[in-house]
Structure formats: structure tokens, C-alpha cells
Amino acid sequence: MPGLADPTDTSRLLSTIELHNQALATSSGSGTLMDAHGVQTHLFDPHTGSAIPRWRSVSVRANDATTADALSTAFSLMQEQQIRSIVVGFPAQAWLLPSGTDQLVKLG
User: Fold this and answer.
1) Rounded to whole angstroms, how far apart are CA atoms 63 and 76?
2) Average pLDDT by consecutive 10-residue portion of the chain (108 residues)?
């Protein structure tokens, strides 16, 4: 069963997710850092130019990998309410990992 790993300790699972003919994608800035302090990541907000994601990680389960990947990347820079309004329009679920915690927020 696929798991959602802690982005700072990938050997530690925060949750497991059941998949049945679905895809799961996770986006996290922790994989590719762009500065020596580990603050700027490869996830850039096209509106502001900021490279600081709102979430430690975002995982999305969707019917196909393209949708799951696109949504997880976009959601990394969005506020929770914006994500909620998009998730209801898709057959998808999202798991958000806020900064400073290891408690996932499940949407959808």
C-alpha cells in the first residue's frame, strides 16, 4: 500500500493510502532546494515569483497520474480554501502537510 512519507525523514510514513486504478502524486519543496538555507525551492509561484511553498508536502489521489501530479504541484502554492474549492470539482482527494507539524489535513 502506498504511503505518504515525512518529507524530512522519508523512512517514516505519516499515512498509507489505498489505490484502486488511481494515481497518487506528492509535491514537496524539500527535494530540490535553491538556496543554502533550505528556504527557496523549485516550486515557484508564477504570480509573485516566490519559491516558498505554503505546505511541507501535498499529495493528491486522482483517477490518472497527470491530474494527480498537476494538482499536487499547483496546490503546493495555494491556500487551503482555494484547494478545497478545486478538489470538489474533481474526483480527487488531497493531503496537506502544514509547516511545524506531522499531522496531515485531508481534503475531499
Assistant:
1) 19
2) 80 90 85 66 69 83 96 91 94 93 92
Closest listed residue to residue 31, CA positions, set 44, 42, 45, 39: 42
CATH code at position 57: 3.10.520.10
pTM of the entire predicted model: 0.84
Domain coverage including residue 21 = 3-107
The confidence score (pLDDT) of residue 1 equals 65
- What does DSSP assign to residue 54? S
Counted domains in the chain: 1
